[in-house]
Amino acid sequence: MTGHPGFSVMLAWLLDHRELSVQELADRAGLTANEVRAVLAGEAPSEGLLRRIAPAMGFHTVDLIILAGQAVPDDMAPLDAGAERWAPYIVMDAARLPVTARRELLQLIRSLPQEKRLSVFAPKRLAPLADPGGSVIRMLQYRNLSWTGMGKTLAVVTPTHLSASTYGVIGSGRKELTPRLVIDFAALLGIDAQELAVLTGVYLCEVPPPPAPQAVDAAALLWEARRLSAAQARHVSELARSMRGDSSNGYIINLPGA
C-alpha cells in the first residue's frame, strides 16, 4: 500500500496505460492540450474538467470525481436513498438467472420512467476524500449500497465475504485495501482491476483474471439502478426474485469463476 498518488500522477499513468497522448485526450474531452497539461503539472482539476475527462477516459464521472478526492455534486447522487434497501437484492437474485434474463432485467431498469428527486443523498461519513479505502467504499455507496448491502452483494458475485462492519472500517481508513479487495471491488464497480489498483496505490503482483460474468452484469445493474426510486427498485427486486423460478430463499456464495 502506497497511499493516494494524487490526481496528476493518476492521470499521467492512465494516459500511459491507455497509450493516449495529451492531445488525444484533449480532443476526446473537448479541452485544450494546455488544460490537460496543467492538470498533469499538478493543478487541481475543476469539477467541469473532470466531467469532460471522465467519459473520454471511460470512467463514470462520479467515480473519477471521488478518485480525484473531491466531493460529489448532488446531481450525481442516486435518485432515492430509500432504494438502498432493494439494490443488493436486485443483484443477488439476478446472479441466479441465466445471462439472457439478466440482460432483460437491465433493459427493464433502463426503460422505467425517470422520477423526480425528492430528497438529498447523504452517505455515511468516511475517511478523508483522498483515502484509498474511503474512495472505493464511497464509490459503492454512490451505487446505493450500504455496508450491509456491500457485504451481501460482494459475497454473492465475488470471493470476498466480509461482515458489514468491516466495510465501515475500510471506509474509515482503518483497514488497508488488499489486492483481493481491489480486484473484487473493481469487478462490482465495473472498473479495470489493474487500473483501480494503481489509482488506489495497491500493488498487484500478477494480472488478475477477468471478473465472473455475474459480477460484470452486477456492476451494470447497480449502476443503472441508481436512477430508480425506492418503489421502482422494489418492483425490480421482486421481479428478479420471481424470475428465479424457485422457492429457495438462499443465495449462492462465491460463484464459480468469481
Provide keyphrases for this structure.
about 260 residues, mainly alpha, 434 Repressor (Amino-terminal Domain), about 55% helix
Mean pLDDT across all residues, rounded?
90
Give the helix proportion (percent range).
55-70%
Sheet with the most strands, sense and barrel status: none
Question: Regarding quaternary structure, how should these chains be classified?
Answer: single chain
Residue fraction in strands: under 5%
The total of helices stands at: 14
Overall number of strands = 0
Cα gyration radius (Å): 18 Å
Return the domain count: 2
Give start-end ranges of low-pLDDT stretches: none
Written overview of the protein:
By secondary structure, this protein is mostly helical. The protein has two domains: 1-58, 434 Repressor (Amino-terminal Domain); 74-258, no CATH class. Helices cover 55% and strands 0% of the residues. Helix 6 runs parallel beside helix 9 (147-157) and helix 9 (147-157) packs across helix 10 (164-171). It is globular and about 55 Å long.
Question: What is the secondary structure topology, with strand pairs?
Answer:
Elements: H1 7-18, H2 22-29, H3 33-40, H4 47-57, H5 61-67, H6 87-94, H7 99-111, H8 132-141, H9 147-157, H10 164-171, H11 179-189, H12 193-199, H13 213-225, H14 230-244
Helix pairs in contact: 2-3, 2-4, 4-5, 5-8, 6-9, 6-13, 6-14, 7-13, 7-14, 8-10, 9-10, 11-12
Quick recap of the structure?
The chain is built from 14 helices and no strands.
